[in-house]
Structure formats: structure tokens, C-alpha cells
Amino acid sequence: MTQPVMKVDQLRMHFPLQQGLLDRSRNWIRAVDGVSFSIAYGETLGLVGESGCGKSTLGRTLIRLYRPTSGQIEICGQEVSALEGEPLRKARINFQMIFQDPYASLNPRMTVFDSIAEPLRTHGLETDKQSLTLHIESLMNKVGLSPRFIRKYPHEFSGGQRQRVAIARALAINPKVIICDEPISALDVSIQAQILNLLVTLQKELGLSYLFIAHDLAAVRYISTRIAVMYLGRIVEIASKEDLFSNPSHPYTQALLSAVPIADPIKERARKRILLSGELPSPSHPPSGCAFHTRCPYAQPRCVAETPVARDLGDGHLSVCHFGKGEFLPR
Amino acid sequence: MNNNEALANEMGRSLWQDALQRIRKNKVAMASFWYLLFQGTVAILAPFLTRFGYETTDLLLGATAPDWVHLFGTDDLGRDMFTRVLYGARVSLMVGILATLVSVGIGVTYGAVSGYTGGRVDALMMRGLEILYAMPFTFFVIILMVLFGRNIYLMFIALGAVQWLTMARIVRGQVVSLKTMEYVTAARAMGVRNHAIIFRHILPNVISPVIIYTTLTIPGVILEEAFLSFLGLGVQEPMSSWGTLIADGVTALETYPWMIVYPCITLMLTLVALNFLGDGLREALDPKSNWE
Amino acid sequence: MIEPILTVDNLKTYFYTRSGIIKAVDGLSFSVAKGKTLSIVGESGSGKSVAMMSIMGLLPQPPAKIEGGSVQFQGQDLLKLTQTELRTLRGRKIGMIFQDPMTSLNPYLKISTQLMEALTEHDRSVSKQTAYERALWTLEQVGISDPIQRINQYPHQFSGGMRQRVMIAMTLMTDPEVIIADEPTTALDVTIQAQILDILRNLQVKRGLSMILITHDLGIVAGMSDEVLVMYAGRPVEQGTVEELFYHPHHPYTQALLRSIPSVMHENQELYSIKGLPPDPANLPPGCPFAPRCERVMPICSQIPPVRTLSPTHTSVCHLETPS
Q1: Chain B 2-41, CB below 8 Å of chain A: which residues?
Q2: Which domains does chain A have, with CATH numbers?
Q3: What's the pLDDT band for B6 if we cut at 50, 70, 90?
Q4: A122, B292, C246, C324: which has the fewest Cβ within 10 Å?
Q5: Set of chain B residues whose Cβ sits within 8 Å of the Cβ of A119
């Protein structure tokens, strides 16, 4: 087996919950609570979950905007979870991020040229101005933007074009992994398809690896090789996308898949939904045992008492549940 | 278009170059700029532009209305008002510029550091600011004067030292909210160094409120100087400033109205020009503004 | 044929701005039958929300101006009513649910106050006791468990999904005939979205409500609607029953839209994407607004396309004779 481009082991990211000036009894929000996975070169791992499940925090921890509470992050063979200062800055050349909202992720006072040049300047890859311009123009061509726009400011672009600028910026220093944090959810339907296709094309062309964070299961299915499902700070199921969609094992994955509306009136109306009761529990007080037991349609006394361990269903399909197929009983 | 120009166009000019180009197209702002420049030059060249001295009294003449000898008339001591307004501009403009520079310099630095560092440093710096805020302004100036003796430059510093408090607060508030903007997060994720984040991403975006507040500060300090002078802490007779001239003019409002009219008009024109220039600058620095 | 409850005819809403006239809604006609759901689909800027705001008289005028058309509801033309008359109708006979339940509730007032106000605002003769009881009942209707306790809480004590339930409860207070839901689940997670859509569907069956659902999610359209109207750049492009639209789309834009969404149900080989960008609303191309992005564009497309009647319920605004 080849070396993965990113390997995450038992990653935890806990944030202190501010209590008051004198109250020292700290509470913690366990945004990411023991996550392990790896991404192979040229692969896309989709990460899905609902808001508040910690998927965005996980992305931001991996890009080292936070220092993880514990656990390891290995990117291109380099352990980055504990790096600080200059070594961390140097390591960043291997991983970049694309953010959700292209209206917010570009500085309104910087031209396209300056935005794309920034990572190059930061990492000392800036050459003379003429070849820098050529480089930026070729990046713009690559992401489908006319180099005529090099002098324009973000507000002169539509959402989809801004996201292309953000992608060009992420590509500028030739990273190996790009973490995409909901890169299409702020865009219009017809533009979403354009950006998804662009990401796929770039991956083939440049051999990139993606961690694609999204709540849109259909988009994740389109772009991913493997998919991880997150619930309350943990990965509850991870499998190849074929396996996950044809044979979801964890009750949460099943409910999630059944909840996505599909654009086919007859099938959509005939579908049986697993309606989950209640809402997401607070990550500062996660339920005992299996965190999903408060909403699980098949919860048993064992689920309240015992934390489940990952069960291997073959071919790298892992599900963190006490029960396997055919063992589910209504509560 | 020759090759160099074409290249320069393709290179992407900086925000500042863009702003310069935009403000040049703004006629009102440019007119204000030239007016202020003219006002400043005239103030510097004051001794060469008038044959009277600002302190030369002519008690026999007394207060006369404007005529061809005394363009702005004379005050009740027979001093030429035109000369006194010219010399007054020296003090008032200097107060305005120096005090504002002090306030912008300290205020922006203090506010940016406090806001960007955050946490305990921020809390400590802000409490310090509040202590200074609580100090009565006149009391503060009197202490300075008592300690260091009366000195016109000290007054500039004192005025600036009071004005920067609000500036620091405004800048800090902006920086705190800018810090959480996603493009700043994006820059951090890219590995951009702290100083580059401050200079490239934060400060350019604080400029609008700083300019707005500065255009408010300059008239503010010009008027405060008048107040201090009135208390006997600022400019002393026979030296004049616009503030003292207006204060004198008020007392003679009914008998010699020209004594208040001319200083008022000059002050007003300057303040209006400042406001237009500030507005123009703010617009020129905002790439979103429609300057066509 | 069922009697329509709300009929919009040739509605035109323009915005007068410095950069020119923006024809946000230009010639929109549709009707909603009693107990049925009409979905309006379109991308942002297609004018779907502006159309609803025009019907409800909620647009600031100026810059907006309703240039023509009529909205018939219970024998009245809503566009001819005064603001006061419209206010009594709004919320009482026609309820609205917005995208963001966070900003549509007042954070300083208890849920009970806000719910009761929705009723007493329109009918001062209602006693406090009656209003309170009705509030409890509506909360139960939208599936909020333990309403007696929850009714005394403030909005921040509710999660996003719960707040949207409260919003629905609020529109139910006055027993409306029509509900306009503007992207009601866009801000919510899929599992919560499924709950809310389930509530809306049940209410509709139980109470015979008519609904106008504005959304960009074709999956929701497929599951919720009887009829669908597709809008592009302020104009209607295709209208028909949900089956006609999904299985026999005529307009190239509808076809492209359906092809460009990935599905969870099956493997997608390559995703179709519509070229280019939505047009600048201030500078629409002459003729068909979709022409610059259309794969089947013809020279004639620079002229205003005709309305083609494909079946008694199915119309398409396109020069194309036959669908491919």
C-alpha cells in the first residue's frame, strides 16, 4: 500500500466554554472527538454531516488554523499537528483550503492579481513581475477565468467567478491536498455544477487530493471516492461511495440518505423516509454511550451504556455501531 | 499606448495607485485639495503677504470697516484683521494637522495592536484606555502646562493625546470584526505572516472609518484650541488663532461685525474643504464605489 | 377543474435604479388551486422572491414599482388595495414563511406573545384566553412536544428547526387559505428539512391549504408540488404539472437544470453544466434571456419567444417547436 497524502489519527479538538471570570470549572465543547482517517494520493474523501457535527472545525483543524487538543495529522509524511511558527508556515506549502463563501474569503480591496499572488509571495516563490503575471494568467486560464480580469476587484465578479479566483489562489503554490469547506453551497444550482466539474478536471490534471466537506450528499456522491459521515464530533461510518450509498450500515447514515429529496416526482413520493426525532444534542454534553442513541430509531439499553467501536464490514467499510445488518430492532 | 504603459496596466496596480487615479477624477475633492494647499501656503508665507504686523496696534485708528487698505477691516485696537487671520491660520492649521497626526499615529497603532492581539493584552490595553478616558480633559491639559510650562507645541500634543482615545476605540472595534473575516482566516491558512496580514488585509479595510473620524477630528481640535485659548491655556495675545479671533469677534458682534465674519468664513471654508476631501478619499479607497 | 384561489396575471415589477431599469419580474402569470401546491423554481435573481413580495405588497416603493398586472384573490385585486386593506389580508388570509427563522422572530418577546399577537393583531375581539389556547394548539399542530412549557420560552431557546416550526405555527394562528413559503428549509439540515416538509405536507392535507413554495431545490419540488413554474431572469420559462416538468421538460433551461443536478440515487458519469453566467438584470439580451447560454440557440431567439401550449396544463416560452 502506498503512503497516504494525509493521515489523521485520533484527532481531538476541544474548545473551552467560557464560564465567568471567577468560575474556574471549565466545560469543553468537543467539536472534534477522536477522528481517524486517511486520504490516498489523487483521492477525494467526502465528509458529510449536519451543521454542528464538527465537520467545519475538523477542516479548520486539519489546515492548522487551530492547534489540536490531541492526536496526529500527517500530511505528505510530515507530522504537522504540533508544528508552530516558521516550520508550520513552511509545511503549509503542501495543503491549502477553499472556503464556503467566496464573497467573504476574498479581500474586497485586493485585485485578482494580488489575491492569487499572495500565497506565492508568502512562500517566497515570487519571481520577477513579468513571470509572476504569466503564472497568474495561466492559473486563471486553468480555472476558466479570462486573464482580462486580472486587474478586477472581487465585487466585480459573480459568486461562481469569485470561487474560481479562490480556487486559483489555492492552486498557486501547487499543494498536494486541498481542503474544500462547502465550496459550492453558497452558489446557484447552475453554477454549482460548473465548480464541481472544475474541481474534478483540476484533480485529474494535477493529481490533487481533496477533502470535500459538504452537507449536500448528492454533490459529495458526484465528486468523492470515499465518504465519511460525521455525527457530533465523530465519524460514524466511512466507506467507498458505492458501498455507502448502496449499503449504508449506520442508522444515522440511513436516515441521512433517506432524508435527501430526489428530483424525480414518482420515486420521491414513493420513498419511505426514516424521520429522525428531535435535534442534535449539544457537543458540550454529548450523550453517554453512542452519541446517536437519543435520536436513533433502533436504540437499545446497550447503546446508552456502552460506547460502540468501529466494526469492519470489509473493503475499508467501517461503521461505529453495536449492531450490524439484520440486528436492528425498533426501540 | 507604448509597451511600458501596457505592461504597467497588466501588472495590476496597487490599491493606492488606483485610489490616486480615482480621486483625480473627483472634481470637488481636487478643488478642496487645492484650496487647502493654498490655505497652507498662504499661512506659511504670511509675513510676505501683508505690510502690517499681527501685533501692531493703531489705537488712533480703532475699529474700521473693511476698505482697500485693510481688506478685512481692523479690530478695536486697530490691528489689521487680514494679517491676524493669516497668522491665525498658522496656529489653527498646525493644531489641526499635528494634533490629528498624533491622534492617528497613536490611535491606529494602539487600536490595531489591541484588537489584533486580543485576549488578555486587549483587555489590559482597553482598561488603560478607559482610565485615560475618565480623566477630565481640561484638568489633564492644566497638569501638562504646570509640569512643562506653557508651550504652544505642548498644547498640540495635549490635544492629540486626548483625541487618540476615541480613534483607538474605533480602530480596535474594526480590527476585532475584520479579524474574524474569512479572507483573514484564508490568509492565515495560507501561512501569511502576521505583519503582512495587518498591513495587507486589516489596515486597508480600517481606512474608511479612520478617514471619516479624522475629518471630524481636525475641526474638533481647531475649536478646542479656541476653548483652551479662551481659558488662557492656549495661544496668548497678541498672537492669534482662528479660535481666538472668533471668540473676540463674538464680544464685538453687534458693534464691529466684520471682526467675526472673516475668521468665520475662512474657518468654514477650510472645514468644508476638509470634509469634501475626506469624502473623496474614502470613496477613492473603496473599490466598490462608483466613481465614473 | 378546481377553482383557483389565487390568480396572478401578467405581473410586472420593475426597479428604478441609478444603473437603469431592472425588470425583476416581467410578465408573470400563474394560478394556485385550492388545496394544491405550486412551486416556483429559479436561481437567485430570477425574480421569484420579488414576485411574492409584490403580491404581498411588501416591496419598498420606490425603488420598486409594480408596472402592471393583477392579483386576484377572493374577488379582489390585491394590487389595487390600500396598504391598510392589504395589512388586514396579509397574515390573516395569506400567511408567509421565510427562509431565515432566526431573523423573522423578535428575540425580545416570548413565543407566546408573538403567537398571540399574530391573531389579536387582526381580530381585536379575540380574548386573551382564546388566543393563548389557539397558540398552544398550533404549536401542537407543528409537532412541538410539551407546548405548555415551550410557549413561555424565548426564540433563542429554540434550535433552527424548532424556530421554523414556530414560524409555521404563527402563520396557522389566523387559519389562512394560502401559505407562501419562501425557501422555508434552505437554512436547515436535511434531516430537519425532512421533518419540516413532512409537517407542511400533513397540514396541507388536513386543512386543505393552498401553498406557493419558492425553492431552488428540485428534489423538494418533486416531492411537494402539484404544479411547477420555472423562472429565469424575471420571466416565466415553463409551467406545468410536476410530472410534465420532470418527465417531459420542453424548455432548454428546464432540461439543462434537471441535467445539472447530481443525484444521490445513482452514479453520475459526468455532470452537465450550463455554460456562462445568469444575465445582468439591468442589461437583458433582447428576445429570450436564456439565449446566450442555450445549447439550441437559433437566430430567431433574438426575438421575444412565443408561449407554446403543449397540453392544457403545460406551457413553455420558447421558439423551439418540439422537445428533443
Answers
A1: 7, 9-15
A2: 6-19+27-320 (3.40.50.300)
A3: very low
A4: B292
A5: 190-192
- CATH superfamily for C4-93+178-191+208-285 is P-loop containing nucleotide triphosphate hydrolases (3.40.50.300)
- What are the chain A neighbours of B285 within 8 Å (beta carbons)? 109
Distance between first and last Cα of chain B: 22
CATH fold label, B22-58+72-284: MetI-like fold (1.10.3720)
pLDDT of residue A209: 93
The answer to whether residue B10 scores a pLDDT higher than 60 is: no
A196 part of contact set with chain C, CB < 8 Å: yes
| Alpha-carbon distance values, C324 to C242, C250, C276, C295 (Å) | 19, 8, 22, 12
**pLDDT tens for residues A233-270?**
899 999 998 889 888 999 999 998 888 888 888 888 88
Residue C70 reports pLDDT greater than 50: yes
Q: Where are the domains of chain B?
A: 22-58+72-284
- Cell numbers linked to B218: 481636525
| Residues A159-201: tens digit of each pLDDT | 888 999 999 999 998 999 999 998 988 888 888 888 999 999 9
Which residues of chain A are within 8 Å of residue B185 when distances are taken between CB atoms? 60, 65, 99, 105
Listed by number, the residues of chain A in 113-172 with a beta carbon closer than 8 Å to a beta carbon of chain C are 158, 160-161
Q: For residue B56, how many other CB atoms are within 10 A of its CB?
A: 13
Q: Pick the more confident residue, A122 or C156.
A: A122
